[in-house]
Amino acid sequence: MIGIFDSGVGGMTVARAVETLLPGNQIIYYGDLARTPYGSKSPEAIIEYSIANTEFLIEHGAGIIIIACNSAASVASDILRRKFAVPIFEVITPAVERAVSSTVSGNIGVIGTRATIRSTIYEQKIKQQAPEFRVFSKACPLLVPLVEEGWLNARETKMILRKYLTPLKHKQIDTLVLGCTHYPLLKDLIGHRMGKSRVRLIDSSIEVGLTLQKYLTAKPAIHETIQRGNENKYFVSDMTKAAAATAEQIFGRHIDLIKV
Ligand code: DGL
């Protein structure tokens, strides 16, 4: 099974991308709703939760892990890779690769939670590949609650986006990484604000799905070990109506959340 974890249900954007790009491969998802949000937590807490989430998924049959949460990926990826034997994928590296190969001007913007932006992981990874590129990062802590409220098209959301994105616009970026699980749901508004023809948006949920697709094609022996089937399971550590509504919004259909 492909194990995916996130701080909550936002990471279902990754599950949706995996479902679309790798149909028939069984997904097991764990959303840590009891301890969400991760974006405002310390690296130590996020690492501890990420280890527990990975253990849960492996115990329940995951043969591959995807860290869907940018905040977790930014501080816990290396530790999880050292600790667990299964292949571990995360949303940051594929998004960086796409951003580096897409930009023409070398001016790349990154938006994410406070934890992700504070880690400077995107900047480090972009500079490793292209030291001459300029990276402009902006923490956007209000966007996750707005998405969770379902305010995907609200006037207030547009105003807040304007406030967050205008400084990036002034930096003449031509590529913007959506470095958070929730931001793909605001893609249209963000694209509109940045200028769709001027700025390419990098959706890390799609990029990690494409990376996994390539990996499994290149490694048929590993692909064989992943249980097939369409009965994806979505576990959560707490259950709220709002989370169920967000899950439904992401998939466009009802999702049975199983509380553990
Ligand atoms: N999943 C988190 C991320 O991608 C956003 C929500 C949270 O802060 O927990 O960074």
CATH topology of the largest domain: Rossmann fold
Major sheet attributes: 6 strands, parallel
Number of strands: 10
| CATH class categorisation of the largest domain | Alpha Beta
| Coarse structural class | alpha/beta
Shape descriptor: globular
At CATH level 2, the architecture of the largest domain is 3-Layer(aba) Sandwich
β-strand amount? 15-25%
The Cα radius of gyration reads: 17 Å
Low-confidence stretches: none
Identify the bound ligands.
D-glutamic acid
Count every helix, treating DSSP H or I runs of 4 or more residues as helices: 12
Mean pLDDT: 95
Q: Which sequence of strands runs across the widest sheet?
A: 4-3-1-2-9-10
The arrangement of helices and strands along the chain is EHEHEHEHEHHEHHEHEHHEHE
How many structural domains does the protein architecture include?
2
Task: Give me some keywords for this one.
single chain, 260 residues, alpha/beta, Rossmann fold, 10 strands, 17% strand
Task: Report on the architecture of this protein.
Helix content is 50%, strand content 17%. Helix 2 packs across helix 3 (70-83), helix 4 (92-102) packs across helix 6 and helix 8 packs across helix 9. It has 12 helices and 10 strands. Helix 9 (187-194) links the parallel strand 7 (175-179) and strand 8. The protein has 2 domains: 2-90 and 206-259, Rossmann fold (3-Layer(aba) Sandwich), CATH 3.40.50; 92-204, Rossmann fold. The protein has 260 residues and is an alpha/beta fold. It has helices at 12-21, 43-59, 70-83, 92-102, 114-119, 121-129, 143-148, 155-170, 187-194, 204-218, 220-225, 241-251; strands at 2-6, 27-31, 64-67, 88-90, 107-112, 134-139, 175-179, 200-203, 233-236, 257-259. Bound molecules: D-glutamic acid. D-glutamic acid binds at residues 6-8, 10-11, 36-39, 69-71, 112-113, 116, 144, 180-182.
